[in-house]
Amino acid sequence: SLERGLTILMAFNSDKDALSLADLFEITGLNKSTILRLSVSLENMGFLKRRRDGLFQLGMSVFMLGQFHKRSFSIADLADPSLRGLVETFDESVMLMVPDNDNVICVQKIESSKAVRDVGLKVGDSYKLDRCAASGVFRAFTGEQGDAFDQIRTAMIVESRGVLFTEVAALGCPVFDLDGNLYGAILISGPQNRFTRKITEKMKGGLIEAAADLTRRLGGDPAIYATVKY
Known about the structure:
The protein is α+β, with helices and mostly antiparallel strands.
């Protein structure tokens, strides 16, 4: 019953904030009598509200849970599993960068265990957009035009060498939010001599998987990465 009740709640989205019984039946595939029974329980708990015209909409309990979540939300905790998987696989430093007007900020970083590693960029560091190793990602997925950005939008990966630090190479991949907008970029970086063609091709596949995982955790649709193969 809990799973079916949550299925009803998940039927609501930003495109259609009020649904009829027929809408819920079509979206969820649940029996109409089941929808009505569960809707009564959800309405009693404040998670659904039935309007005078008979349409259902989300109730105030959903809003309250959203406020609780905002207060407890930590992007570092949310991103940690996605980033840590990359570090464990390739043992290079991995970070999450997010845009802030004309800058990008490092909001999470997990270091490589190797003695020689990328130690130049720290959590909280801010760089001008055009100086960031993943600047191509931010520019491409915020609508900048041109063949180079078209290629990035197709490949979903940017490779850079010596952008922030002379001896450092990096790969970047976009991460998307609930509305399908660019949220940020995951970077994996380390000394250039370790980023050989063979290893970077393997890293690209791992980076796509990590970005898809974090996009899912942010409520986005990981299907955007489905056509990318490495």
